[in-house]
Amino acid sequence: MSSFPNLSAPAAGSTRQARITAITSGKGGVGKTFSSANLAAALARQGLRVLVLDADLGLANLDVVLNLFPKITLHDVFTGKHSLEDAVMPAPGGFSVLLAGSGMVEYSRLTPDVREKLLDVIRQMRPHFDRILLDTGAGISDVVLYTVSLADEVLIVSTPEPTSLTDAYATIKVLATSHGRRDLRLLINQVNRPGEGRTIRGQLQQVVDRYVTPGLDAPVKLEFLGEIPSDPAVRDAVARRQLLLECFPGSPAAQAMVAAATRLSA
User: Deepest of 61, 134, 152, 191, by most Cβ within 10 A of its Cβ?
Assistant: First the structure.
């Protein structure tokens, strides 16, 4: 069942176009997909119509995070077996999802066919939602960078771990120098003490100011969206395959996620 009616026809009298946020990371294992799902739930609680599109076409795992078992995925849409409307699923937390399905190896490379089909999906989705979150793959592959190019804004998820920060910097550099991004948002996950995320943002900004901004037409600005504390509730939610906001809404990490979503929607 589709989570909204009549996708094939535009809403009468509506000129709404969803704001698109690409949520990406320099490396895997930083909680990007978990963050995407919980941010979507927090945005939905604000009364927004939210879609999360699993754009990690080669190693999709949004279905695992949400404990969903899709019968129809983007693969079926791309191959013409099913309509896009049939592939949209309601998710726990009051938002909608478009799931890619795991192991779509044929879509892990950016071919002209993948470009066209991904762009077409997003074009069809925009009039029906207020916010679309693109849960991209990790790293700076052609598929990831193309997906990010389709977004109005970019949120980079990192942890305080040195290799995560190094890869986050590499992502920022590529997005700024090769893709013209000058404003990027930053969410620091798994922080160990209050204020650590803001400190990391400041350190990254200094490095960007010194090594990336010179020679560009405008400075690259990193906006601090928030920090998510290390919290046993997160591990429990992941193990249960449930949204943190649903099973542990009062936990520090859940409250931090809500605060980040509030800033994201501002």
Answer: 134
The helix, strand and coil proportions of the chain, stated in percent and rounded to the nearest 5, come to 45, 20, 40
All domains of the chain, ordered by start, with CATH? 19-265 (3.40.50.300)
DSSP state of 128: G
Q: Strand, coil or helix: what is 66?
A: coil
Contacts of 103 (CB under 8 A, 6+ apart): 58, 59
- Using DSSP bridges, classify how beta strands 96-98 and 88-90 pair: parallel, antiparallel or unpaired: antiparallel
Task: Output the CA–CA distances (angstroms, integers) from residue 234 to 18, 94, 189, 266, in the order listed.
Answer: 29, 20, 11, 25
Polymer length of the chain = 266
pLDDT digits (tens, 9 = 90+) for 138-188: 888 888 899 999 999 999 999 999 999 999 999 999 999 999 999 999 999
Q: Is the four-CA dihedral 169, 175, 177, 181 of positive or negative sign?
A: negative
pTM: 0.92
Given a contact cutoff of 8 angstroms between Cβ atoms, the answer to whether 61 and 33 are in contact is yes
How confident is residue 102, by pLDDT bands cut at 50, 70 and 90?
low
CA-nearest of 130, 158, 198 to 35 is 158
CA distance 24 to 32: 7
Measure the CA–CA gap between 96 and 44, rounded to whole angstroms.
10
Q: Which two tokens stand for residue 246?
A: 């649903």
Whether residue 141 contacts residue 11, with contact meaning beta carbons closer than 8 Å, is answered with no
Residue 170, C-beta contacts closer than 8 angstroms, at least 6 positions apart: 26, 140
Q: How far apart are CA 155 and CA 148, in angstroms?
A: 10
